[in-house]
Amino acid sequence: MNKLILAILLCINTTAWAQNQTGDHAKVLTSDQAILVEPGQMPLPPPPNDGRHPGTGAPTRAADGVSALTNDQRSVKQFFNKVDVVRSVHSSQNDLDSFNAAVHGGAIGKMAPVVIKDLSSLKLTFKPSTPNNGKLIGVSPQGTVIGDRWTGVETYFEIQGGVLCVSELDLKASGGGFYMNKSSANTQVGGKPAHASILKDDAARQIEEVMWMNDGKLVTVTYAPEMTMGRFGLSKANSSVSALSIANSLR
Amino acid sequence: MPRNVITRIVSAILLTASCAMVAPANAGLVWFSRANCANNGSITWDWPGNNYWLWTDGFHYKFQQRAWEPRISTGWERTYRSAAMHWGEGFNGGYYVYGNHYRYVPNVGQIFLGRTATDNCNISYFFPYW
Predict the structure, then answer these.
(1) What value of ipTM does the predicted structure carry?
(2) Between chains, do B115 and A28 touch, taking CB under 8 Å as contact?
(3) Closest Cα partner for A138 from A120, A116, A160?
(4) What rounded mean pLDDT belongs to chain B?
(5) pTM for this one?
(6) Do B112 and A43 touch (CB under 8 A)?
């Protein structure tokens, strides 16, 4: 009986009836690309100080003429910390199998995932993207699980001149969507509106990010270029590679 | 003792113990709902140190009373875990739970990560450093 009621609830979950009963006004979305809106049209009000860290001002225009440039210590540190973990911790196939079993109602008490060595071990709701070149150094599942498939993945690569993370989330599969500030859409990837940014810290490290939505997937390319000291100060070791060029060449 | 009761007790013990058991590892941001475990809740989580602006709303339906509980809303939190929970509510079962999961990206926009729904405690997945 409960199963029947559950089935009925699942069917009506997204209807106006359910939304009125619960006070839930979120809409399950099926958009293939970012929904461009003014800040006041976002589904939720913004966090305090627009979510900026204390001491972090509004972005300026980067030297590439496109990207938004921000001094953001925490985000840069967070990315390099993750890269360090990906390089140093690799879970076994058993760890992954146990985790998948736990997610599907199997053994109890398995710890959270996991960095695994290759994409073939993960069941996903989509075919993941890869760059034209680069050495895969780690893979992490992300998102939620639908059936027996993860809705997202982070893949890390060493590429000539830096380290790269390609994050993909199948928002269409999970009923979500990406509301992008109209004013932050400063470039395009494959004809889709995108946001490009460069984040720096006080240690002269920088990461470049491009975020866009394509075919129902939220894609974020994060590239940390190696920096070298030249005649005019610090610059990228390989100036021909950028997050934007990688984003445009993903397969 | 019924198996599901044992499961809940073991879950509660492991959840507490997990804080001390974990080795460094990595995952991306994950989100789930769980019903009729010891607790009912919707959770958005990553490993400590990976902080985001997160917001989770939870909605709980009690079959016996044919009624929705009041919405649980976390509001925006800069955190590695966001949980819309009713602690202890699920011990006796009988709930359907769904959650809406959001992330805010400063200067860029809002991501509605999606909706998760369940009537069971099948996700025996524990969140270290919870």
Answers:
(1) 0.83
(2) yes
(3) A116
(4) 79
(5) 0.83
(6) yes
